[in-house]
Design goal:
75% of the residues lie in helices and 0% in strands. With 79 residues, it is mainly α. The N and C termini lie far apart (49 Å). Keywords: Endoplasmic reticulum, Lipid metabolism, Membrane, Sphingolipid metabolism, Transmembrane, Transmembrane helix.
């Protein structure tokens, strides 16, 4: 893929983003506020997923291993 075709593809994706969200009708300052709020919300979802999902997965594994009496590895006894 050449640089020109990549640039055209990214421009097309941005145009699709503008059309799907409907922000093509907004003024530039309104677009920046909308994009800032959207970016902040996505960043918060990614951060909370990074922080809390591993904890919940570990707790779920411990819970289900206790229910089904699965032999836990030795390193689980230290935590």
């Amino acid at each position: 893929m050449t640089f020109k075709s990549l640039r055209e593809y990214l421009a097309w994706m941005y145009y699709q983003y503008l059309l799907i969200t409907g922000i093509y009708v907004l003024e530039p300052w309104e677009k920046s506020i909308f994009n800032s709020i959207l970016f902040s919300a996505i960043a918060m979802v990614i951060y909370t997923s990074y922080v809390f999902v591993p904890i919940h997965v570990r707790l779920a594994l411990e819970f289900f291993s206790g229910i089904f009496d699965v032999v836990r590895p030795v390193f689980f006894f230290f935590f």
